[in-house]
Amino acid sequence: MKFNILFTALLSTCVMSAAAADNSVVRIGVSNDRSGIYADLGGLGSEVAARMAVEDFGGEVLGKKIEVIGGDTQNKVDIAGQLVRSWFDTKNLVAVVDGGASSTGLAAAAIAREKNKAALISGGFAADFAGAQCAETTTQWAPDTYALAKAVVRSNVQAGAKSWYFVTTDYIFGKTLEKNASEFINQEGGKVVGSVRHPLGALDFSSFLLQAQASGADMIGLPVQAAIW
What are the protein's UniProt keywords (predicted)? Predict the structure, then answer.
């Protein structure tokens, strides 16, 4: 049922583009990281899941066959942009589904907006998808950093965690989540006593956690990449 709702919403916005191109196929592209840190969270499995969803939907819409193609962004913004643009320009793509990081998702969404095609973001959590880079062609099928920060911060500050220290992954998701969380901490009467950032993919957090411990903060916030959760 969930797949049917998702694909009905997506394809109803896309089929007119396919018809205008006089194409008998409604083609959807799944772009994500298949060789880097997010490969296990999405990768080829996301493309397989999309194909299964198409099968559940019946394999066609308004008499047109639904086809799923996929590609590896390598978790790099420039590669993601080149991949998605080439799909729209040469594959008559009607929609891109991005299951990678916020950075590659924002790149995909920007190109989809330029081409007036649909972007279904299922991996990027940055609030920018519904904020600074909101577009009528983009749908974010994921919780965003605003919602995540508000849910976690308000209850903890009200429970007594007044001072916070952040150990944050140095990329869009981490920095945006820290920013949103800091705003809610201040609103609730708490304070941020410090923060440290680590590179994406870091596995040794000992030095960062020692800094957090030395701060004396009531709470350590961890806006880190999902791949290490």
Answer: Signal
pLDDT of res. 16: 47
* E strand or H helix that includes residue 156: helix 145-158
DSSP assigned state of 32:
E
**CB neighbours of 111 closer than 8 A, spacing ≥ 6?**
81, 84, 85, 88, 96
Q: How confident is the model over 36-57, as pLDDT tens digits?
A: 888 888 899 999 999 999 999 9
Distance between CA atoms of 49 and 213, rounded to whole angstroms?
42
Spatial CB neighbours of 39, under 8 Å, sequence gap ≥ 6: 33
CATH of the domain at 185: 3.40.50.2300
> What are the angstrom distances between the C-alpha of 124 and each of 25, 94, 99, 149, 222?
27, 20, 7, 15, 17
177: which residues sit within 8 A by CB, 6+ positions away?
125, 145, 148, 149, 168, 223
Q: Which residue's entry shows tokens 């205008």?
A: 20
Q: Say if residue 185 is in the same domain as residue 105.
A: no
Same domain as 177, residue 92: no
pLDDT of residue 165: 98
Of the candidates 173, 167, 201, which has an alpha carbon nearest to the alpha carbon of residue 74? Answer: 201
Residue showing tokens 């009905």: 8
Q: Which domain holds residue 220?
A: 145-228
